[in-house]
Known about the structure:
42% of the residues lie in helices and 20% in strands. By secondary structure, it is α+β, with helices and mostly antiparallel strands. The longest helix is centred in the C-terminal third of the chain and has 38 residues, at 102-139.
Amino acid sequence: MASEAEVLxxxxxxxxxxxxxxxxxxxxxxxxxxxxxxxxxEPERVAALTVTALxxxxxxxxxxxxxxFRELLVRGVYGYVATYAAGRGAVLxxxxxxxxxxxxxxxxxxxxxxxIGELVDAEAAATAEAAEAEERAEAAxxxxxxxxxxxxxxxxxxxxxxxTTNARTTTES
Length: 173
């Protein structure tokens, strides 16, 4: 997947643009943490819950005819949890205080999700391309190394002479 440093850099930029964020996490759609900036929060647990919520949100969007999943917003007493699609291979989850400017949160979350999606999808495409090339190389029949041929000088041969002799063959029985 995309370099953890690149994704973490995007998360930190997001937190700088929206100061009321208390955490940010990028996870693969398989639930593995790609990068996280979530002080005081267990990132593996949040990633697992994010993927679970993602599955429900995707089914809800599909069942109601709303199209592909884009984002999910949960409001609690103390703040927000927002989850954004990040390309085909990842999701972004951000935690925010209750006093966050919700419009700013949504705008910046979408932008960061798109950027992380570009990073993750580009890395996945490069990995898939490399694997495909390796597969083709393994599937190609192995050619025997070409024999090194050295040119031998031709020597003149003496003409053949055929002398016929009367040879008798006998078989005794």
